[in-house]
Amino acid sequence: EQVIFCAGRLWDEAKNVGTVCTVARELPWPVVLAGDCMAPGGRKIQLPNVRCLGKVAGDDIPAWFGRAAIYAHPARYEPFGLSVLEAAASGCALVLGDIPSLRENWDEAALFVNPGDCRQIRNAIQRLIEDPGLRGRISEKARMKAQSYSIRTAAELYHEAYSSLLRQ
Q: Which of 101, 137, 145, 149 lies in the 20 to 30 Å Cα band around 45?
């Protein structure tokens, strides 16, 4: 659907959801957020210009990934990005923060943006909205890459690594 989706700890500045909220008013599609708006310590964060679902049951998240055409995750810090993997596996086109861990895992399968540049984030999302062909190519590359992150593949790679160590 014509929806931009974000998920995670919405209060966590490392996830950088605030920049998506800032640009949401300039986008023709709605932005929907899923996650806790209550920071540790009880501070409730304000998320203007978006539809905030709050905490969503684990079974409902895949449905949102399946509905959204675009997943925005302009993170400043992210060790791996499980939500990105879920979005990619569901066929979302990805707009990701240009940080080493996300670049390493999703290079050529996402549009990368400077996490601190609202204009760049808006432009990347707008580009995917305006170009369905690009959106389709990016989402397909992300979906294919997500398939490579299977439990079976991880187990085989661990087995190879440990076997190599044992041979030495």
A: 101
pLDDT at 94: 98
Residue numbers in the chain where pLDDT is lower than 50: none
Name residue 143's amino acid. Answer: R
CA distance 64 to 41: 28
Any bridge partners for residue 97, and if so which? Answer: 113
**Token couple for 167:** 């041979």
Structure token pair of residue 156: 């085989």
Residue 30, token pair as written in the block: 């709605």
Give the residue from 81, 6, 78, 87 showing the smallest Cα distance to 49: 6
Contacts of 121 (CB under 8 A, 6+ apart): 19, 20, 23, 72, 74, 95, 113, 115
User: Which pLDDT value is given to residue 57?
Assistant: 82
Q: What is the pTM of this model?
A: 0.89
CA dihedral (41, 101, 48, 69) positive or negative = negative
Query: CA of 110: how far to CAs of 28, 98, 130, 156, in Å?
Result: 20, 10, 16, 26
